[in-house]
Design goal:
Strand content: 15-25%
Shape: globular
Number of strands: 10
Largest sheet: 6 strands, mixed
């Protein structure tokens, strides 16, 4: 029996001023799967993901979670379904420490409204331990952390609030090789815990080693989806540029 996808987007379309940003797009994501979403700027990746994240509302199509149709009309709707997004700028506040950033806007307070600092620090420590991650100090300002550590804080914030789907926009951009490797290890660890992860990139080198499956978009449409192990980087690059499936995959899409 085929497992029901964690997320299924069916026939998603969105038009801006007569321009088809996304046109009849079908995408699926399984629990514990890492999906690489590839394509040049303007391919439709960002619009598609903003629809899933509740930032933009689709003109038509359906979104299913665990096989059930859902309505996602705001980021709050998405978060209630366990869909969290980590944008490239990470949305961290440099003059606050890791714990304060993790709970930013969703702080733990007591009956009188006072912040429960100890409870938040304990929860932050537990979340980082779940991710098998260690920071120099939970009290260090985010501005003092490395790029990879900042990425980890942003991921921890999503995971703490029970993310089942993690959307990551260019997660290794501007990171050095070692920090890229560490973020990759973290992504695989989270996938191993059953979290579905979407990696958005216009660079196949960023995601090829991490993704279980690749979906390529061009001009608002899906060129095709394939298991990463079934294609070479050159074949995927051809999909991005030419907008066509490799010859070996034309008989069927993985």
């Amino acid at each position: 029996m085929t497992a029901v996808p964690l997320i299924e987007m069916r026939g998603i379309s969105k038009t801006f001023g007569g321009v088809h940003a996304v046109e009849r797009v079908d995408v699926t994501l399984g629990a514990g799967e890492v999906l690489g979403l590839l394509g040049h700027n303007g391919a439709g990746k960002s619009t598609l993901i903003k629809i899933l994240a509740g930032v933009v509302t689709a003109d038509s199509g359906a979104i299913l979670v665990d096989g059930r149709p859902v309505e996602i009309r705001s980021p709050r709707d998405a978060r209630a379904l366990g869909i969290e997004t980590i944008y490239q700028n990470l949305a961290l506040t440099d003059n606050l420490d890791a714990t304060a950033n993790l709970f930013l806007g969703r702080e733990i307070t007591g009956r009188l409204g006072f912040l429960q600092d100890e409870a938040m620090e304990h929860a932050a420590s537990a979340t980082l331990a779940r991710m098998k991650l260690r920071l120099p100090s939970l009290h260090a300002l985010v501005s003092s952390l490395s790029g990879g550590q900042r990425q980890a804080v942003a991921i921890a914030r999503a995971i703490h609030f029970n993310a089942r789907v993690l959307i990551m926009d260019e997660p290794t951009a501007a990171l050095g090789p070692e920090e890229t490797r560490k973020v990759g290890v973290l992504i695989r660890e989270l996938a191993g815990q059953g979290i579905g992860i979407v990696l958005i990139s216009h660079d196949i080198h960023d995601v090829f080693d991490l993704a279980d499956r690749l979906t390529v978009m061009k001009n608002g449409r899906v060129v095709g989806s394939c298991l990463t192990r079934d294609v070479s980087q050159d074949e995927v690059l051809g999909m991005i540029i030419a907008g066509e499936l490799p010859h070996a995959l034309r008989a069927g899409v993985a």
